[in-house]
Amino acid sequence: MAEFEFDLFVIGGGSGGVRASRVAASLGARVACAEERYFGGTCVNAGCVPKKLFSYAAHFHDDFQDSRGFGWATPEIAFDWPILKKNKDIEISRLEGIYKSILENNKVTVFKQRATIAGPHEVQIGNRQISARHILVAVGGWPWVPAIEGGELAITSNEIFQLESLPECMLIIGGGYIAAEFASIFSRLGCHVTLVYRGEALLNGFDSEVRQFLSAEMGRHMELHLQADPVKIERNNRGLLTTLDNGLKLESSVVLAATGRRPMTANLGLENVAVKLRDNGAILVDRHFRTDEPSIYAVGDVIHRVALTPVALAEAQLVARALFADDVREMDYQNIPSAVFSLPNVATVGLTEQEALGKGLAVDIYSARVKQLKHTLSGREERSLLKLVVSATDDRVLGVHMVGPDAGELVQGFAVALNCGATKADFDRTIGIHPTLAEEFVTMRTRSKSHP
Ligand code: NDP
Questions:
Q1: Tell me: the pLDDT tens digits for 34-47?
Q2: Which of 7, 67, 92, 111 could make an S-S bridge to 34, C-beta 3.0–4.6 Å?
Q3: pTM of the model
Q4: Domains of the chain: total
């Protein structure tokens, strides 16, 4: 491999890029990784990790309230945004450093610079060209804002982590993961939240019952405008004024556009090679993450298949092992669990009821709306939803869905069960852990619906 300076040049030091670099280097490859912004990518710096830290902060709001029914006399509580932001910043810069050290400790040559593609085996860094046998593009995605008049006045999930003070009022556009999570977080931190979403229930693509249930739960903590779309954002003397397509005008101090993310393929030098893009701007790859340029691969958000950190990690690992361990395998995109850290949390694995019906499957639905034991004393009017989609043909559990506390923690285990092909009978013969919410999943005996 000596005719190239590196065996693998990775563009992008996010979850996928760092994983591929580390695994390839540990297999003896000479690896370089270029990152222009921050190591750890969106997940560590402007996504999963800081969001979860904010989400923990938001949780205390309900916990303080709930504690009173258990005898705690909570004095007047106050929330200090600058403390949260400062502590979050410290933790994120610590983590970013760890990601950089992972590369250095594995003898990956690190370029803290923008890299572009100059040819099938050439990467441009500043005015230097570097050769590599293989190139992996793992540059991720970036928030996208629709072309609304005044859309430039909106911030995105990038800026939300850098706010210097807690806004009094926030208007959030969108109904996906980011909208649901930040609406929940800021409503609990003491901000008046208005969420505007064009659909009829939040979380398009999730199970309909989950969507309705979550929308109703979240609607108790914020102003929810469904089936409405903003058409204009403008400044007035009190802040921002957003006009909806139904004529409603809403004031806020901040507008957050949580309207999706797009692959960051612009100005990457892709015109210099045979790499093709899909209509949505994502890099087109085959089953082995190879682009139309045989020496160039792509993984993670830039291929826009499933934009989740653990998926990018798995894809990156597969590429590195295929290239340097001769271990060629395909990614299994079935039963990928995911959680939305809204309040309440949502988690899901497998098919929704609608997906099962769309595939023409005969399914039985088991669903329960449960009041957590905790809320008998807390007085909180909150229920949780647990739902199973079960094949009527072979009894296999095809989908597990939950809206409720720690849903992500819980559904992770059920994802293993689904991957093992668990049947409803397996669920039924499993002894519950009492008293928990999770035990509902193994005690649901009555079908709530049957689709023959
Ligand atoms: P999503 O795709 O989840 O949601 C985008 C939202 O914006 C949808 O509600 C969509 O509506 C709406 N939207 C899109 N275009 C327009 C438009 N022109 N006008 C009005 N509304 C519009 O994207 P997010 O930005 O929330 O998150 C990006 C991705 O990041 C997620 O899909 C997920 O893969 C990942 N992520 C994962 C998290 C986790 O695992 N917990 C947390 C955060 C992000 P509609 O549905 O009607 O098209």
A1: 999 999 999 999 99
A2: 111
A3: 0.98
A4: 3
